[in-house]
Amino acid sequence: MDQITQLESLGIHILREAYANFRNMCMLWSIGKDSTVLLWLARKAFYGHVPFPLVHIDTHYKIPEMIEYRDSLTREWKLPMVYGENIKALEAKQTFPDGNVDRITCCRLLKAEALKHTLNGDWTRYRFNHEADEYQVDKDTEAYTGVIVGVRSDEEGSRSKERYFSPRDTENSWDVGDQPPEFWNQFKTDFAPGTHVRIHPLLDWTETNIWEYIEREKIPTVSLYYDQGSGKRYRSLGCGPCTQSVDSTAKNVPEIIEELKSGKFANIAERSGRAQDKEDGGGLETLRREGYM
Amino acid sequence: MTENMNVVITGHVDHGKSTVIGRLMADTGSLPDGKLEQVKASCARNSKPFEYAFLLDALKDEQSQGITIDSARVFFKTQKRNYIIIDAPGHIEFLKNMVTGAARAEAAFLCIDADEGVQENSRRHGYLLSMLGIKQMCVLVNKMDLVNYDRKVYKQVVRKFSRFLRNINMNDVTFIPVSGMEGDNIASLSKNMSWWKGDTVLTLIDKFRKEKAPDHMNFRMPVQDVYKFTAMGDSRRIVAGTISSGTLKDGDELFFYPSGKKSRVSGIENFTGESPDEVSAGMATGFTMTEQIYVKRGNLVAREGEKQPQVGNVMRVNLFWLGREPFVKDKEYILKTGTERVRMRLFDTVKVIDASNLNSDGMKKMVERHDVAECVLTTQRPIAFDIVEDFPETSRFVIVDGYEIAGGGIIREAIRDNQAEYRDKVMDRNLKWDTGNISRAERSDSYGHTPALILVGGPEDIRKADFAKKLEQHLFNQGRKVYYLGVQNVLAGLDADMTVKRHHLYPEDRDEMIRRLAELSNLLMDVGIILVATVSELTFDDREAFRMSVAPIDVQTIWVGSTEGSDVTADYTIPDAAEADSHLVSVLNLLKECGVCK
């Protein structure tokens, strides 16, 4: 069995374990390549069905193509799509682009806070109604106790310490020093009331593996990853104001793989275009301990 | 495509694991551009000397304490392979993290400080690696610079540790003298140790053999789930799981344990593209069946004509304990093996070993944190499993204490128990079972509910039957296909060849009576109805017989009257038989919760 098939099988195995053990579960879809691979794995694991909601945290500063792509795949694949937002911070203009807070605080408000309250159901969720072809207020306000996330251990230091099944307490915080043991494909699936669990099926994948899999499976990805003629493309996607494109003429998936393996990006970290990482001395650790992905 | 391999690096705290990896990364140019400079600059800013270990210890906690808390993963490439090097913590407090890291590896490095020599965790890690199933190990005798690169010191460590490894059957082991701090024998041969002509860490890592997936072995697949997603017109019923050994193809005859029921693969399912003809060990897959038998998560699938798994509820095991609370008798735990999950107890400790020196204590009656032990476990109902010599993958288990995974181990032997004889009969019956053209699933769809067995037990008392009849009436009024079965109906008929007066039954006659009743129940389960049966003085063994007979259907037990002298833990107890009627609603709710009256 080749490496990609091995990674795919473990990913599917983890998704099925999660589905068997947690009833109130959702999957985070950031629209980026990793969580789109995760979505693809879910469709493979459950034979074309996605038996839990896909949740997107909309900061309203995402690059517009990302939202267009999200909604077109939602329609095409009949996805159970839900989004949440921090409407208070947005209305009060407590954001970095508005010039009122720094980048880290902006991330905390628009992503970590919005995520926390969308997951526990006390802020409004919007669900795509396929018959009406629009987002409507989601009547389901029950907390999600299992959250599937597409983080990879090669992204930055703190993510390399993650478990496949990683418990979070009621405040969403992560105790790095005291994590459950995990061996022989046996995961922690017993939880005290009030806790929830993050599930990480892509932990062992590298950025190159992701692109190799996208190529093999012909997974549709958002156009921002490819050079459209300007000599620039995005390597990692986030909010417009804090995500820089990189100089690259890679126009398709094979060219990206080539660039990662032997070309100009072979030794440059993927998130080097993300400004918020640099403001946090411990990588993303401060944010992640508080619930950031 | 290039090969991929996970290698773990372990060893006693401060014996220099992180330094060795940091050095290996730096000396082979494997770090992202600027990373080395960035860490060096950060050290200079904080006025502390640069250490290669800082490259890995990316977390703030770890830098301030200078020890590895969790297993960090590092990606490393040679011409031959892509490696994930797992840096496992050496501190005893973090043994569960070390186990987590090591269990993902195919080979291991173990660091021993040449100056300090073999320490407690050198031995403990060696023992755990062996139990986790890691066969190849390379011992790095580190910090050779501190002992003046003295060959004699190196030889002494090799001698002492080799003896220990032989004792625990770890035979595929090599040794290398290194210094992570100075870079000796890491990426290139050291000028300081001209006496060493062997491998460097870099050349040795490529010599680890790639473990082959166990395709050549007999087929095993723990059932993860049975999917029937009806959206978008999908009518498939797919048995899903990851193959732990062997291969599977269209048309294979399969047995599902612990029930031993049989069906045939009608197709291997795939979401994209063509369905594969054959799938093999390690693959996440799913298949449809020609006969719709009742299969559920936790079942173990084997193929006809191959070695079949063990079925039982008593087993001898080797285990290691990580829990804060010791592993004791008279306490209930959860055992997880494959996808099975069952309540269990510690029946006996054969011997408890202090893993750090391998001294065993045959008298110790509990297993404490970080101990390794040989024990006998009992599970609440029979489960399917393998023994480690036959199938390592499906012999592995973990034990959950409260909400935490507190131990893990391997099953060495299945021990025959009270029910073994009857279980063999049930399995034989299941192998020979001839099903009509209507499957259980079709019956359930048509009746609007799944079959269920409700046993009403208690002391001899007419009110037990009254209660069971009322329960029947209520379920019937709700539109269920339900039937009340009183034990005397059977005694006077099916059991007419036996002594009919129950009080004069010999014990073996009673066993036979229960067997017949259980068989009759199984037939009625196949009919698809809800059966409410009364059994006076129902015992634990009786109920096990029913469970085994109707498996995988769950048995619900309602107890009416005094529980004195009873060894059954009922799902619902009505202590005062006179008040039975007032409990009817609660019992109906309980049944609903258990999924009996969906």
Structural description of this entry:
The complex is a heterodimer of chains A (293) and B (598). Chain A has 9 helices and 10 strands. Chain A is of the alpha/beta class. Chain A has an 8-stranded mixed β-sheet. Chain A is globular, with a radius of gyration of 18 Å. Chain A starts with a helix and ends with a helix. The longest helix of chain B is centred in the last third of the chain and has 21 residues, at 507-527. The two termini of chain B are 50 Å apart. Chain B is α/β, with parallel strands linked by helices. In chain B, the strands form 5 sheets. Chain B has a 6-stranded mixed β-sheet with strand order 2-3-1-4-5-6, sandwiched between helices. A 6-stranded antiparallel β-barrel of chain B has the order 7-8-13-11-10-14. Helices cover 26% and strands 30% of the residues of chain B. Classes of the chains: A alpha/beta (293), B alpha/beta (598). The interface between A and B is large, with 57 and 64 residues.
How would you sum up this structure in a few lines?
Helix content of chain A is 33%, strand content 12%. Chain A has 9 helices and 10 strands.
Mean pLDDT reading of chain B: 85
Shape type of chain B: elongated
What is the general shape of chain A?
Answer: globular
Structural class of chain B: alpha/beta
Summed up, the domain count of chain A is: 2
Low-confidence stretches of chain A: none
Question: Layout of helices and strands, plus pairs?
Answer:
The complex is a heterodimer of chains A (293) and B (598).
Chain A: H1 3-21, E1 25-28, H2 33-45, E2 54-57, H3 64-76, E3 81-84, H4 87-91, H5 103-120, E4 126-129, E5 134-137, E6 146-148, E7 165-168, E8 196-199, H6 207-217, E9 232-233, E10 246-247, H7 253-261, H8 275-279, H9 285-289
Parallel strand pairs in A: 1-2, 1-6, 2-3, 6-8
Antiparallel strand pairs in A: 3-4, 4-5, 7-8, 9-10
Chain B: E1 3-11, H1 17-27, H2 35-45, H3 60-65, E2 72-77, E3 81-87, H4 95-103, E4 107-113, H5 120-132, E5 136-142, H6 151-167, E6 172-177, H7 201-205, E7 221-227, E8 238-242, E9 247-249, E10 253-257, E11 261-268, E12 278-280, E13 284-289, E14 300-303, E15 310-321, E16 333-337, E17 340-354, E18 359-361, E19 371-385, E20 396-401, E21 404-414, H8 420-432, H9 440-447, E22 452-458, H10 462-477, E23 482-485, H11 487-491, H12 507-527, E24 530-536, H13 540-550, E25 555-560, E26 572-574, H14 584-593
Parallel strand pairs in B: 1-3, 1-4, 4-5, 5-6, 22-24, 22-25, 23-24, 25-26
Antiparallel strand pairs in B: 2-3, 7-8, 7-14, 8-13, 9-12, 10-11, 10-14, 11-13, 15-19, 15-21, 16-17, 16-20, 17-18, 17-19, 20-21
